[in-house]
Amino acid sequence: MSNVNPTDAGIAALESGGNYSAANPVSSARGKYQFMPETFAGVQRNNPELPKVTWEEFQQNPDAQEQYQKAFRLENETTLKRHGLPQTPANAYITHQFGAPKGIALLQADEDMGIDKFLSPEIIENNRLDPNMTVGDLRSFTNRKMDEAMGVTEQPYRLSIAGTNDIPNAGQGLTPPKNPFENPQQQKTLDALDASVAAIRKHQEGSPAFNLAVASEFKKDMGPNWQNAFISALFGQKEQAMNWITGGKIAPPQMGEAYVDGQLKRVMINSNARGDKWVTDASTGNRLPDSVQITSSAPESAIGTGQISQSVKAGLTPMVGIGGRSTNQMAKFEDFENIKTSWSSLLPTNYGALEQIENYTKKFAPALDNLSKSPIAQTILSTIQAFGKGTVDRKALEDAALKIKVKPEDLGEFIAYITKMDVLNKNDAAMKGNHAPGSGTAGDPSFEGGSGNMQKWLSNRIHDQAMQSAYNQFFDKEKSASFSPSELNKQFVRSAEYQGVKNMQKYKEQGRSAKFVDGAPIANFNKNGELIIQKWNANTKRGE
């Protein structure tokens, strides 16, 4: 117990002062990490390797408390990763304090939203929070409290922290892009940020001296984006401050084709955390002029097939390619490869969205059923759809949600529900017509018909997610074989991956009454949201 994880130590300090016998006077939270009975039960259910103790025994067993906390923290870190959120101590504490679904919603919400849209008055009072806090305030406050609890001293800004070039090679023969905005002058700006924040924090927050110092530092002329970076730094948002100065991390590039000096070339269309966009030569990594003409980009069109397609149209004899494939087949395979690559980048985002949609469909089932019975159902549905299209504001959606009896403290999560469905819809629309065999059948979600209709759609959409994941795995395994594209699809339909997904769907529909032969393939998603193919155990009635 002496080797406690630093994040766990910080959580314990804030929750109980490190007291294994702590009992919350206003709730049923107990122990060093202030577990609730339902949290304890969930961690025990999700981690069968943990000591089998009762709730009462858990409260008296320091070793069990440490083991359960470690498992709970790892669960939350995995959830943060699935949703593309940094695994920081502050984020870990927010998911610990409010639970993963609520925590993820708080971490993904707009900073100007009030915490009262996510937390009940009772929770706000019990956690001694200011009811007028915004989500941004809560995140900054939690970050400072965790730093204090862990004894962390603020580190100076360094260009190396930005991770601006932290991107894997996009593929064989391709050169990853470099950050074109990084320069030595930026380090001086980052040093100035440190000095400005330190000077301001010498004064009592809110005092006249504090306000004067803020105004003085804000007006400094330290180059582009200084004021935005200064505000972020002042509120403890170090990564955002870094992004304003350096551009921040480079996102995985989108592949494309462009005419460069009269020749059709493969290019990378790049962007960074600040929102800058630029184009680089895929083979050299060199930045191209902003005026370069992009002729195609994945997934809308295949990369590297332009010249091949022109030769085929011109009536030239197709040459023989790799594995005995004709150039036409190679063009098709490159098309498949680029569609598969596009799906690979979308699948993790889609899984995170589906996970939240599944949780919210259960949580808001009564509201969805109220909607289906409401005399103004069409008006409310139109408002929800308009919010997804960006034609009505958040307040209009909140008013519509209240009409179907969504609780005021759940409005933030209801907005997250609609937002996640919109993300999924846009991703699906971008890949329309480019699906694995047996996938792309769910259609669009709709609240018409209430929660039952949403559950049916969700089941079909999770099946689509599994089938596309299975196809990507199969494609990577079999693409070197000398199958034609159509034969590859036929082989997939006969594969263990395909049958495993079908069996997963059958098991979800029929439960433990579903019958499979011993050793039959059955698909499942692991804790990281990755599809795995297991073998059915007829004795235990589960995949192993």
Summarize this, please?
It contains 21 helices and seven strands.
Describe the secondary structure blueprint for this structure.
Blueprint: H1 6-15, H2 37-46, H3 55-59, H4 62-82, H5 89-98, H6 100-108, H7 121-126, H8 135-150, H9 185-200, H10 208-218, H11 226-234, H12 238-246, E1 254-260, E2 263-271, E3 277-281, E4 293-297, H13 306-313, H14 327-363, H15 365-373, H16 377-389, H17 394-403, H18 411-430, H19 450-478, H20 485-493, H21 496-510, E5 521-525, E6 531-537, E7 542-543
Antiparallel strand pairs: 1-2, 1-4, 2-3, 5-6, 6-7
Helix pairs in contact: 1-5, 1-8, 4-5, 5-6, 5-8, 9-10, 9-11, 11-12, 14-18, 14-19, 16-17, 16-18, 19-21
Could you tell me the number of beta strands? 7
Beta-strand residue fraction: 5-15%
Average pLDDT = 82
Strand order of the largest sheet: 3-2-1-4
N- and C-termini, Cα separation: 33 Å
What is the fold named in CATH at topology level of one domain?
Answer: Lysozyme
Secondary-structure-based class equals: alpha+beta
Q: H/E order of the elements? A: HHHHHHHHHHHHEEEEHHHHHHHHHEEE
Principal-axes geometry comes out as globular
Give your account of this protein's structure.
A 4-stranded antiparallel β-sheet has the order 3-2-1-4, with no helix packed on it. By secondary structure, it is of the alpha+beta class. α1 packs across α5, α4 packs across α5 and α9 packs across α11. It is built from 21 helices and 7 strands. Among the domains are: 145 residues, Lysozyme; 64 residues, no CATH class. About 8% of the residues have low confidence.
